[in-house]
């Protein structure tokens, strides 16, 4: 009987360890991980508002950027060095007051030279002139990058 108890105890311990391993969160299939976030580029051309709505339907937002590492990571998701895409920057509430759709602090920028440059362009366009950000016309149809927490 003591041997049976020992075996039962070992079985319980090993099954609990497996549960902990299964509890480790991973990005959904097709999404790429950086830190505590998962990112995915969608090539379907849509307006900026539609892109944000599509991200929200996946429990995500258009990607925000808080460092050069994140900026470069987003660029690595794009299919080519000339691909433009939407990300979460916007100044639609107040001109010149840039915000992220996920509500995080707008604490980093990587504007292309001369950007942002238009009062009527309120949405963040990533990879302008193959590197920086642009304030784009929100109705332009292009791909987008979503980000969500693990």
Count the DSSP helices. Answer: 3
- Helix/strand order: HEEHEHEEEEE
- The percent of residues in helical segments reads 25-40%
Classified in CATH, the superfamily of the domain at 45-143 is Mannose-Binding Protein A, subunit A
Beta-strand proportion = 25-35%
Which class of secondary structure composition applies to the elements? alpha+beta
Radius of gyration: 21 Å
Q: Strand count, sense and closure of the main sheet?
A: 8 strands, mixed
Number of extended strands? 8
CATH architecture of the domain at 45-143: Roll
Low-confidence stretches: 1-22
**Chain-averaged pLDDT:** 87
CATH class category of the domain at 45-143:
Alpha Beta
Classify the fold: give the CATH topology of the domain at 45-143.
Mannose-Binding Protein A, Chain A
Span from first to last CA? 44 Å
- The global form is globular
Task: Tell me what you see in this structure.
By secondary structure, the chain is an alpha+beta fold. The protein has a domain at 45-143: Roll (Mannose-Binding Protein A, Chain A), CATH 3.10.100.10. 27% of the residues lie in helices and 28% in strands. It is built from three helices and eight strands; from the N terminus they run αββαβαβββββ. It has helices at 2-23, 48-56, 68-77; strands at 32-34, 37-46, 61-62, 85-90, 99-100, 123-128, 132-136, 142-149. Strands 1, 2, 3, 4, 5, 6, 7 and 8 form an eight-stranded mixed beta sheet that branches. Strand 6 and strand 7 form a beta hairpin. It is globular, with a radius of gyration of 21 Å. Mean pLDDT is 87; it is low at 1-22. Residues 34-147 form the C-type lectin domain. It comes from Carassius auratus. This is Galactose-specific lectin nattectin-like. Residues 1-23 form the signal peptide. Pfam families: Lectin_C.
């Amino acid at each position: 009987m003591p041997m049976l108890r020992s075996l039962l105890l070992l079985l319980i311990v090993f099954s609990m360890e497996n549960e902990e391993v299964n509890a480790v969160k991973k990005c959904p299939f097709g999404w790429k991980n950086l830190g505590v976030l998962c990112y995915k580029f969608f090539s379907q051309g849509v307006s900026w508002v539609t892109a944000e709505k599509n991200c929200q339907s996946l429990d995500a937002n258009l990607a925000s950027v808080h460092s050069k590492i994140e900026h470069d990571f987003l660029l690595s998701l794009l299919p080519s060095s000339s691909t433009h895409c939407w990300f979460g920057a916007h100044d639609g509430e107040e001109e010149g007051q840039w915000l992220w759709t996920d509500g995080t602090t707008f604490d980093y920028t990587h504007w292309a030279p001369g950007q942002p440059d238009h009062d009527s362009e309120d949405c963040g366009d990533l990879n302008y002139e193959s590197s920086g950000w642009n304030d784009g016309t929100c109705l332009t149809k292009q791909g987008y990058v979503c980000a969500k927490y693990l």
